[in-house]
Amino acid sequence: MAIWKAQRTLLIVGEGRHEEAFLNHLKSLYVTRGCGLSVNIKNAHGKGALHVIDWTAKQIANADYDVVAALLDTDTDWNVKTEKLAKTKKIQVLKSEPCLEAMMLRLIGESVTGDANALKRQFAQFVNNDATKHDHYALHFGSACLLAGRTKEPTIDTLLKLFGR
Fold first, then answer.
1. Which of 55, 75, 105, 117 could form a disulfide with 98 if both were Cys (CB 3.0 to 4.6 A apart)?
2. Contact between residue 131 and residue 141 where contact means Cβ atoms under 8 Å apart
3. Range of the domain at 97
4. Does residue 132 lie in a domain region?
5. How many domains are contained in the chain?
6. How would you classify residue 36: left for phi > 0, otherwise alpha for psi between -120 and 50, otherwise beta?
7. Which stretches of the chain are DSSP H helices?
8. Does any domain span residue 1?
9. Domain CATH number, residue 21
10. What is the pLDDT of residues 32-45, one digit of tens each?
11. Strand, helix or coil at 154?
12. What digits encode the pLDDT tens for the residues 68-90?
């Protein structure tokens, strides 16, 4: 009997609950048992880009991953200092500009206007009014949508590559 071992390990930290749910949706689509990829998804619980990078750095201090990435919004604390810290800690930054909801709305061809709160309200209808549940992303953000959208959203393209697509 052979012992199975992941060929590649990936840690992706989401800024908050919406990012965590979306990342778990991606995992459910693209990571199957025995596929050679082990994906660990964690939630940094918000507080801006600098906090997400700091929190991610603490997660990898005592654990070894082949690839470490952080999915974060650029509307709070994204600056040269934060970018430099991420590079120093070897954390691949996956930027949602200005926020996850805007990126997701653009994926499905919706116009993106207003502040983050307005975008969250607009986005809610596409995730059954609860963006914290990973299965709520399935209807509008399936594999076909993501694959088609990778050409217009660089962060989606990078995420799909991380998941081996």
1. 75
2. no
3. 8-162
4. yes
5. 1
6. left
7. 17-30, 49-60, 80-88, 100-107, 116-124, 143-149, 154-162
8. no
9. 3.40.50
10. 988 899 999 999 99
11. helix
12. 999 999 998 999 999 999 999 99
